[in-house]
Amino acid sequence: MEQRYATSPEHVPGMDTAELRRRYLVQDLFIDDSVGAVYTHHDRVVMLGAKPVTGPVVLGTFPEIRSEFFFEHREGGIVNVGGRGTIAVDGTTYDVGHGACLYIGRGAKDVTFTSSDADGEQGPARFYVVSAPAHTAYPTTFVEAGAGNVRELGDALTSNRRTLNQYIHENGVRSCQVVMGVTTLHPGSMWNTMPAHTHDRRMEAYLYFDLPADARVIHLMGEPTETRHLVVGNEEGVISPSWSVHSGVGSASYSFVWAMAGENQSFDDMDGFAISTMR
Predict the structure, then answer these.
(1) Which residues hold Zn(2+) (predicted)?
(2) 229 a known binding residue?
(3) Vertex 220, ends 192 and 256: CA angle to 5°?
(4) Integer-rounded Cα radius of gyration of the chain
(5) With 0-12 CB in 10 A as exposed, 13-18 as middle and 19+ as buried, what is 197?
């Protein structure tokens, strides 16, 4: 488990490209037949990837979280960004297709990831997990891809028409503090989350997926008046502190998993910024 310590906005102006990427860009989560994990001290969120190829992958614990098993004191949302697979949670098996979501509540002990068709067109399953500390337990709940609360946002005229699926949220799958969903850009639209916003009460994590291998997303981050950018590839993530905007434009169409944890679960609790005010 890699550790990423929290940063403040005052750190950003002095960072070069290498440091920005080292602190905020998350790469190599999906390792064949293994689990990759990053612990960010922004709201103590863990970003984790599991890629079962030749056999099942068991989610163990990590010394950094001081727990007998991973979900002893935590909860998590999971989205499959690869081929079809299964997740077994304490003896119950869930069939999880591309883009589907599974919430696992505090107290779940045995979690195993398996690919159903590792040689298929979409390759092995690749399970992306965002986990946060939890102080109560909610039941493990599965949601098919596209079966969450659907919101249509943006406009083709501004190249940001997108379909947002809310899976784990205050009026959907219940959780202690994790909020999660998937956004897919419409054909011809490339911008996500523009106009941009912050929400100083919650951190956010992005994982871009379904992006062609030779394409990239230019992800904007930083304070609205002191922005920086990251060049992000397929199945790479971004840690977005509560004070940072999180928006991007792709060189091809893409989807992304967004997840938040922090003070509240209100999706619309945002502080928006017109692009004319950004620097």
Answers:
(1) 197, 199, 204, 246
(2) no
(3) 40
(4) 18
(5) middle
Task: Reduce the DSSP state of residue 19 to 3 states and report it.
Answer: helix
As a three-state string, the secondary structure of 124-186 is CCCEEEEEEECCCCCCCEEECCCCCEEEEECCHHHCCCEEEEEEECCCCECCCCCEEEEEEEC
Q: Is 64 annotated as a binding residue?
A: no
Determine whether the annotation assigns residue 246 to a binding site: yes
The string of DSSP letters for 220-271 reads: EEEETTEEEEEEE-TTEEEEE-TTS--EEEESS--EEEEEEEES---TT--E
Q: What is the pTM of this model?
A: 0.95
The verdict on residue 251 lying in a domain is yes
Q: What is the pLDDT of residue 134?
A: 97
The span from the CA of 105 to the CA of 175, in Å, is 7
Give the domain range for residue 47: 15-277
Backbone φ, ψ for residue 269 (5° rounding): -80, 85
Look-up: residue for tokens 């609360």? 149
197 assigned to a ligand binding site = yes
How many percent of the chain have pLDDT more than 90? Answer: 83
Separation of alpha carbons 96 and 44, rounded Å = 26
- Weakest-pLDDT range from 91-100, 154-163, 206-215, 237-246: 154-163
pLDDT-wise least confident of 6-10, 199-203, 210-214: 199-203
* Confidence check: pLDDT of 135 > 90: yes
The answer to whether position 199 is within a domain reads yes
Q: Domain of 232: which CATH number?
A: 2.60.120.10
CA-to-CA distance for 120 and 57, rounded, in angstroms?
18
Number of domains in the chain: 1
